[in-house]
Amino acid sequence: MNPPKIILSLCDFSGAWSAPYTDAGYKVIRVDLKTGQDVRLLEYPGRVHGILAAPPCTHLAASGARWWKDKGDDALVEGVSLVDACLRFVAVCSPVWWALENPVGRLRTYLGPPRLIFNPCDYGDPYTKRTCLWGEFQIPYKTPVKPLRVCSQGSWVQKLGGKSERTKELRSITPPGFAREFFRANP
Predict the structure, then answer these.
(1) pTM for the complete prediction?
(2) E strand intervals along the chain
(3) Are the beta carbons of 139 and 182 closer than 8 angstroms?
(4) How many Å apart are CA 181 and CA 142, to the nearest integer?
């Protein structure tokens, strides 16, 4: 019997993006600051099949642009250093496929144009949150639905508002429809 394929899931507090892999029997190694694991200090894990990376968008997403100047360069360096650490594992592990996710924002300034920009409603989850993916992966098949308008800004994600840690966690959960279709396209 072959050992299970290993998926390295970086900056993955919720486990939502990697859940389809776990459910299918892959060995998923989840790493997140909130569980006491800093991807910048993670040691080489050996050969992995795929890498999912969702570095925190707190200092990178366009939704927080009004605070960028007040946060200063230290916050930007923090955000970019987590992205760099994720990309280090792509370089040293040579996975079959990899993807790095972040909402539309200033990350494209550092990584160039994303391979895919999507909204959760493109994959069956009825809300909007423009999200970018960089990497080497098969683009998932779209299963679009009409987004629900739940407030003046539109999506329930905007309705959450606030800066609490719990609110940030809720906004950052990978949409289940996208996670499912990404898995189907990138087994």
Answers:
(1) 0.85
(2) 6-10, 27-31, 50-53, 97-103, 116-118, 131-136
(3) no
(4) 8
Helices (H) and strands (E) in the chain, counts: 6, 6
**Which tens digits make up the pLDDT trace of 8-25?**
999 998 999 999 999 999
Integer CA distances (angstroms), 102 to 25, 52, 173, in order: 26, 11, 11
Question: 35 and 15 in contact (C-beta within 8 Å)?
Answer: no
For 60, residues 6+ apart whose C-beta sits below 8 A from its C-beta are 76, 79, 80, 83, 102, 103, 105, 106, 107
Q: Retrieve residue 17's tokens.
A: 């993006």
DSSP string, 35-51: GT--GGGPPP----SEE
Q: Classify the C-alpha dihedral 116-120-121-124 as positive or negative.
A: positive
Euclidean distance between CA atoms 8 and 110, whole angstroms: 23
Q: How far is CA 148 from CA 48, 121, 153, in A?
A: 38, 9, 11
Average pLDDT across the chain, whole number: 85
The CA distance from 164 to 121, in Å, is 25
Between the two ends of the chain, the Cα-to-Cα distance in Å is: 18
**How far is it, in rounded angstroms, from Cα 7 to Cα 173?**
18
Distance CA 43, CA 93 (A): 11
